Structures are given as C-alpha cells and as structure tokens.
Amino acid sequence: AYRVYKKTSGNGSLTLYLGRRDFVDHVDTVDPVDGVLKVDPAELGDRKVWVQLVCAFRYGRDDLDVIGLSFRKDIWIQQLQIYPPTGNSSPNTPMQEVLLKKAGDQGYPFIFHLPTNLPCSVTLQPGPEDTGKPCGVDFEVKAYIAKEADNPDEQVDKKDTCRLIIRKIQFAPDQTGVGPKSNISKQFMMSDKPVHLEASLEKEIFYHGDPVPIKIKINNETSKVVKKIKITVDQTTDVVLYSADKYTKNVLSEEFGETVEANSTFEKALSIIPILVNNKEKRGLALDGRLKEEDTNLASTTMLRPGMDKEVLGILVSYKIKINLMSSSPQCSGH
C-alpha cells in the first residue's frame, strides 16, 4: 500500500498527490517523479495549470536580504502543462493508478524524468536559532495557476500554488571496489626507532548505521608502550557553487584501550559507527536532505561520475578517518 502525500492550494482549486517523497538515484538511472494533480477548473478563467519540478541550491540565510548572505540558484527546472490537457501523456505508472483513484474524475497524471547528473538532496544542519529554509540542495514539486509557464512579469498568487518537497537520495551500487589502505612510519619523541602503522578498510562503501571495521596493523620497534588508539572521523563539506567555502567537522572521536608493548606487533579490526544521533548539535553539518523534522542521516559521500560538472553539484561531501597512537610520551598519527 502506498502512503499518500497531498497538498491543496489556498483557493482549493489544486490538490497535489504523491505516493512517496524519496526518489532514488541508482547512479545510472533515477526514479521518475510520478504524481497526480487534481484540478477544479471553475475559477481558472483564461489561465492554465502547470506543475514544475525544481532542483535548487540555497546558501546563506533567507531572512537577511544582504548581498553575500543569501544566495539561491535553480540548478534544474522543468514545467509541464496539466490543464487544459495537451494530450501527449505516457502510460500511467502503478503509483499513478492508485493516486488517480484518490483524486477522482478531476485527476491528471504527470511524470518528470530527472537527469543523472543532478546532485542528491543535502541539508546543512541548522542551529537552534536559525530560521527560514535551511541551506543545501532541495527538490520541490509545485503546482500553480498562471497564464504562462514561466513569465517573470506574471505575479502568481500564493493561494494559486501548492508544493511538496521531495528528496533525491543516493543508493550506492552493491559491487563496490577494494577499500582504501594507508600506512605511515613515525618516531615518537625521544625515540630513535619508528612505529609502523597500517590501516585499511575491507570495502569502499558503507551504509548508514553499519559498523565500519578498520583493520589496524602496528609494528612498534620503539621502547615506548602504545597505551591507546584514538580514531576520529571528519566530514568535509565543499560548497563549490557559492564562494568555494570548505569546512571540516568532526563526526566521531573514539578511544580504544589497546596496548602495544615495546618491540612488539599488533593486528586487530576496530569497529566504529559514525551516526547523526551523536552529532545533532553541530551547526552546518551536511545531512542527507531533510523533510521537516523527519530523521535523516549524515550526508552520503558525493559520488563524482566521469564528465560530471562539480559546479552543478553545489555541495561536495567527503569523509576522512584518522588514527592516532597514544603513548606515555607524545603520539604519532596516520590518516
């Protein structure tokens, strides 16, 4: 059974129906955005009814109309005429058949096919006193009454519109490549011999909430004892579409009481789970798009495909794991 999401315009002439609000980017294809619009033509006069899907990038605060603080750009936009019907419609999807039953005789199906080079929904976590729409990339389905689809001189009354925010979410492929591996040799202070540290991940993609086992190998050639291992995960958000802001926020910091004696070796997988629930208070953290107060996740890593324009993506998100070996004297670390 589908859950039905609906929104009615202030004048009651339009009702927008969607059977879901999450649409998946499967890397080579994107789920079509299929819905139904119910139209009561009684009050239209010489105007038409349109539905549009827009992908927009928003950065800075909406309530401060100061140059440099508020910035909005439509990355992709498409409009369809719904009423009067144009006659060139595709066969209904199973979802639309269900929605048409809900909408009744005045229901008209519509479908948008998103290109594969658009970003996924990303929200920058607002602070407690932030108001207005959050920064990030969002997708909105909007139905409206107007003489023309997109005439900047035509004022469209708010009561003649209804809108629903949807999310484009990334679904990483199952066939993932070999995980990253890194090694480093460093000396503790006051020690002439090195410590060798190697860290590796068994695969390159992990799903939200999954444990991430990090395989750690240590060859401690020094006379110092490694008292504990500290693992941190940082999220880097690169806002490429605006002023090229780039900032890093810590999303996990954990210490493991593992001892590596002097002149000995160590090998073990240590597991971490970076999750949003431990980072709720961090303003500006990148999250997968948010629908009202519904739970979401830390933003997925941006997957850059060959030939993609970074500018179009708006916000690039990446993660880095850092491992520190703590001894009784100053430590050594590796990324």
Automatic annotation (TrEMBL):
The keyword Protein biosynthesis does not apply. May play a role in an as yet undefined retina-specific signal transduction. Could bind to photoactivated-phosphorylated red/green opsins. Belongs to the arrestin family. InterPro entries: Arrestin (IPR000698), Arrestin-like_C (IPR014752), Arrestin-like_N (IPR011021), Arrestin_C-like (IPR011022), Arrestin_CS (IPR017864), Arrestin_N (IPR014753), Ig_E-set (IPR014756). SUPFAM superfamilies: E set domains. GO terms for biological process: G protein-coupled receptor internalization; nervous system development; signal transduction; visual perception. This is Arrestin-C. The lineage of its organism: Eukaryota, Metazoa, Chordata, Craniata, Vertebrata. Coiled coil: none annotated. GO terms for molecular function: G protein-coupled receptor binding. It comes from Scleropages formosus (Asian bonytongue). Residues 191-330 form the Arrestin C-terminal-like domain. The gene is ARR3. Keywords: Sensory transduction, Vision.
